[in-house]
Design goal:
The protein has one helix and 26 strands. By secondary structure, the chain is an all-beta fold.
Length: 354
Amino acid sequence: MSLLIGSHNKSLTFPQLEGLALRSCNLTEFPEFIKSQNKLTSLHLSNNRIHGLVPNWLWKTTLIWVDLSSNRIDIPNQIAFDDAISSFPMLRWLHLQSCNISTFPAFLKSQESLEDLDLSNNKISGAVPNWVWKKSLLSLNLSNNSLTSLDQFSSNQDSLRTPICNLSQLQSFDASFNKLSGSIPSCLGNINTLSFLYLQQNNFSGSIPDFGGATQLYALKLKDNKLEGKLPRSLANCTMLYAVNLGNNTLHDTFPLWLGKLPDLMVLILRANRFYGPIKHLENNFPKLDVLDIASNNFSGQLSIEFFQATHKLRSLKINGNNLEGKLPRSLANCKKLEVLDLGKNMIHDTFPY
């Protein structure tokens, strides 16, 4: 859809207009008739071709929801207000992903009511300023940038003084695909509202923190880092866990059979680590598991009939690149849901499974 707003329409006024959604309308500039919309609470202009500086008149003090994503825009460092108000007291939801932004917008300093902030897929680098960590935040997405630190004043990201530790209501945090290093802040494991934690594709090192307090955790993705040590046994307390992806680290532990009691776990990815030892006693565990990937580790021992009986509900099974041995049980034919099976680079001796 292409929306053309000519100069003769710049004075359009809709006195009762509260919500305006012009997504994917091929706009090249901000519609000037917005100037006169004084009751606007919701503004969605994402996925257009708007470029240049965001005009001051766009920022209405009545705004609650703003989405300017997927435009090539510049946010001014200072936003002037005719009524001398220096913030948007109603603003709760701000999405600026894929906007070609290179710094954190300075006006965020005074936004104390933000609940959902998305700055993903931009060109922001360096440390996250401490004023970004609003206590009101429920969801924060900083993924796909070039961030190097979560704390602008400290290199010790495991400290309980790290600003992210103040976000006691946080439900979703995504800082994946950055250049973050150091330890994962231990306080993340104590936020009892946290459901989604995505920190994959960074340079985090050290051990995975204790998650004893994060009992609402639903998805944990820490793949492609430099994490080491054992899996925290406290993950067994996260009874709502649906997906765990810890692939491509240097974790050194035995197979986490203790995760098998989680009632809703469907995805378990441990590939490319240093897990070792046999895989036994899977029967009566992992009741809903759909994807199991333990490839490229040091698991060893016999592949038992019980193993395949326990995994007969799987859609994807990857155990390649280990030291497993034995024959394929004929019960493998009962895995009716199986779409992906990779057993390569083991010591399995058998005839071709016709």
